[in-house]
Please model this.
Amino acid sequence: MRNEQGLQTVAVHAGETPDPATGASAPPIHMSSTFCVDAPAGFSAHDLGPDSPYLYARWSNPTVDMLEGKIAALDGAEACLATASGMAAASAILFTFLSAGDHVVVSDVSYAGVAELARDTLPRMGIEVSLVDLSDPANLANAMRENTKLVHAESPVNPITRLTDLAAVAKIAHAGGALLSCDCTFASPIGQRAIELGVDLVMHSATKYIGGHGDALGGTVSGRADLIKRMRIEAGIHHGGIMSPFNAWLIARGAATLPLRMRAHQEGALKVAEWLEAQAGVTRVLYPGLASHPQHELAKRQMKNTSGMIAFQVGDAARGRALAERMIEKLEMVHYAVSLGHHRSLIFWMDTAGLLASSFRLEGVQAEAYRTFAGDGIFRLSIGLEDAEDIIADLARVLG
Ligand SMILES: *Cc1c(COP(=O)(O)O)cnc(C)c1O
Model:
């Protein structure tokens, strides 16, 4: 007897049922912003309960509910909140669980938007922020304080693919009475089972792998039902950064093929990463699925799929910039553009000096630790679903 469905089945069916009104097999898009109720109802966010009817689309909407059910099931969590973007998901976590006087530990390298929010906005709100290299759990143990309420990790970290041992940092965060959130965008729900590893709040930019087609912005946070309810009231209903039903529909349509796509992204990435490693002009390739990745053993232990994100170096910053210019001019298929996780391959040059000065603002050992992975700069390459041989042929045009 199978007790639990496999992830491919979950991706296709979770959250969905044939439409009771019409029998439609594909989920309908309910664009309605308001709903006719059959009894007088309270209009406070605090009146929201599990049996509340649909009232107003900032509270809940059937199409967004459908996506939330699917992502909660894929993450293996009790509940999920869908948000307007990945940044809205990160803000939802930070501004629901932190207040003035609290302390938060944030990974010293993270998605640039989260990095800047942690450095600029949180201190302005009276929140104490420690920026910590979480790839060594001992650093977290040293950073914990009496008032640490939240630890925010990211694994693999954008853009350098550095990993955090999530089970180890979960133990330390929980021993100190803090929640652990992790931005799992690079891994997707298929790449690592973050809830099983002890993460309380799993966030994804659904704009990336979950949606998978580069046509809709969105974010998700999954976790225990009580935590998600607090976020729904504060971040969803009060701050208002909810996902539109149309985007929920597009992202759910993408999510149905997520397990299949992740397998193809991983297969393509491994082939391209191995090819890159053999190129004379490439000085370093970072891909968790390669034996040469400094944390390959942790990747094997923690990740079920090493995804399609590769970082590689070509020498000093001048060489990187020149190659970026050549790519913009000469690449015929791979798009020179930000974002990741799409069916189209995307590449972007990220200069270390610029990033350290603008987003990360790291010095001393932390800056050195970043340079250990990134050198003077990296190309962040998101392997799409094209044939690996064609991606390689396009890259050979500029690297050969
Ligand atoms: C893109 C990204 C985000 C932000 O997501 P948006 O949907 O663009 O707001 C957050 N974290 C990571 C790791 C990302 O790659």
Summary: The pocket of pyridoxal-5'-phosphate is lined by residues 85-87, 111, 113, 154, 158, 183, 185-186, 205, 207-208, 217, 219 (CB under 6 Å). The chain has 15 helices and twelve strands. The chain has a mean pLDDT of 96.
